[in-house]
Amino acid sequence: MIQKLIAKIETRNAPIVVGLDPMMGFIPEHIKSQAFAEFGETLKGAGEAIWQYNKGIIDATYDLIPAVKPQIAMYEQFGIEGLIAYQKTLDYAREKDLVIIGDIKRGDIGSTSEAYAVGHLGKVKVGSNSYYGFQEDFSTVNPYLGSDGIKPFLDVCREEKKGIFVLVKTSNPSSGEFQDQLIGNQPLYEKVGEKVAEWGDTLMGDSYSYVGAVVGATYPEMGKTLRKIMPKTYILVPGYGAQGGKGEDLVHFFNADGLGAIVNSSRGIIAAYQSAQYKERFTPENYADASRQAVLDMLEDIQGALAKK
User: Which domains does the chain have, with CATH numbers?
Assistant: First the structure.
């Protein structure tokens, strides 16, 4: 699957992923009104509104982008109906031939970690049959529990030719409370990066590993260091746009071949119509058109920065 991701990035010249992280405050009133008219102001109505909102964004952007990254918590908060919307979103993205990064941030050990890996990336056995559950192509994983938590994901990835993105240095302001702490004379995030590179060497594609890393755009100098530590690792870069990351901050996340990183934007794209930059040009009814324009502007910013590298 890493080869498919790279091929789509190269074909579209678009090292970006759209984070499908819907919140009810992002969804235009005309979509919510229609969903509530059919199902009431219920969890089922919320799930329908989320699914229709996501569908509009995918329809408007799928020809520009290689991948989407739905954050499962935004769906889980609505219970089973939210997870139904999550599954519908995954199925529709797959119909559009988009690579799917399930942002699930799971981290556990033993049979629990194996169940997470199977449920999201592999197949579960039911009697004599086997079935895919959510069937993402990649998932995000928390490494805090060590190799015991990662190995079940590696086993499933090896069998299914799928991948993971391991949290290394996250974009949030308090990430340093743990991630920057020194182990000897080296910060913890560098130790995790070294481990990611080690795991990745056991699960290589043609030139990049199936084991990727998450490194926030808000820490470009740390990203520069981690790029050297993990030369064969694809880096998923959150924090662009709404969290302050800009194209010029991202150049060190990429290798000399112009590959090696994929940049995420979530609300900066999916709620673009609400932002000062776009709300004068796009009405709530045209929210998906605003999302498309935000993708085009993001591409121009990143491509321009990489051209100057």
Answer: 2-307 (3.20.20.70)
